[in-house]
Request: fold
Amino acid sequence: MAEIEIKEQVEQALGDIRPALQADGGDIELIDVQDGVVQVRLQGACAGCPMSQLTLTNGVERHLKNVVPGVERVENMAM
Reply:
């Protein structure tokens, strides 16, 4: 599957969980997808939240792995 197609699928999947993050004052930005690794940047309240790593692995990563074939892990590319 082409990287562009995977990136589009990841963006759509992030759209599924974005409302939950925004409800808590945060958001998520897709930076890149390379070799099954999704790079994102948590924003707003999520950026400084002590639970952000848990949100990233148990929420974002789990969802992406379930709906986008080929996703292996998600990395937070903090500023």
Observations:
- The chain has three helices and three strands.
- The chain has a mean pLDDT of 91.
- The longest strand covers residues 26-34.
